[in-house]
Amino acid sequence: MKQIRSHGRDLGWLVVSAAIGLPAPVLLFLLVASLPATVAAGLGLGLFAAAVWVTRRLAGLQRRRAAAVLGAAVPASYRPLPAGAFARLRMILREPATWYDFAWLACQFVVGVVCFVLPVALWLGAFQCVTAPVLSAVLPEPTGYDPLVLELTGRSTVLSWVLVPVGLGLAVVAYRLPRPLVHGQARLAAALLGPTSKAVLIDRVGSLTATRAATVDASAAELRRIERDLHDGAQARLVAMAMSLGVAEDVIDADPAGAKALVAEARAGVGAALTELRDLVRGVHPPVLADRGLAAAVEALVLDTAFPADLDLRLDRRLTAPVEAAAYFAVAEALANAGRHSGATRIQVTIADTGTALHITVRDDGHGGADPAGGTGLLGIRRRMAAFDGELRLSSPAGGPTVLNMELPCAS
Fold first, then answer.
1. Which helix (H) or strand (E) segment is 54 a member of?
2. What does the domain layout of the chain look like in residue ranges?
3. pTM (2 decimals)?
4. Are residues 372 and 378 in contact, defined by beta-carbon separation less than 8 angstroms?
5. What are the Signal transduction histidine kinase subgroup 3 dimerisation and phosphoacceptor domain coordinates in residue numbering (predicted)?
6. N or C: which end of the chain has fewer CB within 10 A?
């Protein structure tokens, strides 16, 4: 029964595809009729705009249907339209995606009709072949409206029985054919309606430019933070120690006890300065991460959380230092966000190395509703991922749970 329903869905998909292609003759006629006038004097602007608008809607529908079949999005590659009717017209005329849409529409008209008619014809042929003996017995004499199978066999009983296995074979073909036809049309849509290689390259360059700018800004902000922490913390303590030691040097002969107290105070300041410097270095690059690797560093993070945490590590090798640092700080930020905002009582961290990518999942049982626009934590994680051409996917419905899926390329 499940297979029958799947076959019915495939046939329905082919029916809709044929219907999507049916407006092609009208739209292509509008295009051919309006284009010369549009280019010459703008007289056919309305017809051309209508043809483009309808074609893009049909193409968008087919993209969504193709994405559902292929399991991967088929993005459009239209550039943003400028202001002004004639400026938009020039953009649309120069847009390669416009002409790919019309090329797809012309192909879809032919392919959609053929892919719909072919299974129907096979089922009708299978039915006639299987029922040929019955038809031969029921219609022993020509009627003027004879089925094709009777004309082929000449109402021969032997030949009619020979066609029965042929009909069964046609039924098998008709049953199995729609699925390849559906995938074929989906691939055609992906090839003609998806972004061109030039569009992909332009988008890639834009993404890398934005990522580089964000990384530079983040690095500059991190340097400013380190400078501020050094200035307000360790540097201030070192200045205070220098002053205390200077005073102690001046009064050591006249007041040995006071000088001793000042030296003790300076010594305490040294300890505090060392602690602050260690904390600062740990924030830049934790020693445990450099010495023992990502697995041990994440274990230390999980042990330091304020609520129970489950850890699933599937790491069999040391990764490059930048990748380990990005993964470590991403997990640290995710745990901090869960502790501050989610109200979670338990968290689960999974890190798996697939050889080509490092997959990180952080899941908490909090109240959900996480929004990257609401703070800098998730934006910082996304920036770290983007610097390595990685990806962050967030799922946080109201009521929870919140799931962060991160992917970092880590091929050797």
1. helix 45-70
2. 2-191, 198-284, 292-409
3. 0.54
4. yes
5. 222-289
6. N
